[in-house]
Amino acid sequence: MDKKNRTSCRDEMLQVVKQLVKTKGKNEFSTQEVLDEMRSAGTSYKESTIRTHLTSRCCVGAKQHHQTVYGDYVRIGHGLYALVHLSDAM
Questions:
Q1: Read out DSSP for 3-52?
Q2: How many CB atoms lie under 10 A from the CB of residue 4?
Q3: What is the mean pLDDT of each successive set of 10 residues along the chain, which is 90 residues long?
Q4: pLDDT value, residue 61
Q5: 25, 26, 29, 34 alpha-carbon torsion, rounded to 10°
Q6: Which residues pair with 81 in a beta bridge?
Q7: Which pLDDT belongs to residue 40?
Q8: Positive or negative CA dihedral for 66, 88, 84, 75?
Q9: Nearest to 72 by CA among 6, 3, 12
Q10: pLDDT value, residue 37
Q11: Residue ranges of the domains in the chain?
């Protein structure tokens, strides 16, 4: 894939999560669901990269180990997350 046209892990994940939440009809998803859906969508990102983005880099309230962080998801339970801006998905 041409690097110019490659989407970021964050962008791919947001698309997958929004569709997942819409399909489920519930703003709740697990780490495993995100991994499975991203694999099904043909992601080129490693599982460790996806997990890092979901649980740390893009999660509200996570310890900040990264220079750039985003507030896309919130942890609602062990291995469970929700979209912060649900209106974007519904």
A1: GGGPPPHHHHHHHHHHHHHHHHTSS-EEHHHHHHHHHHTT--S-HHHHHH
A2: 5
A3: 68 95 95 96 95 89 74 93 77
A4: 78
A5: 20
A6: 29, 75
A7: 95
A8: negative
A9: 12
A10: 96
A11: 3-88
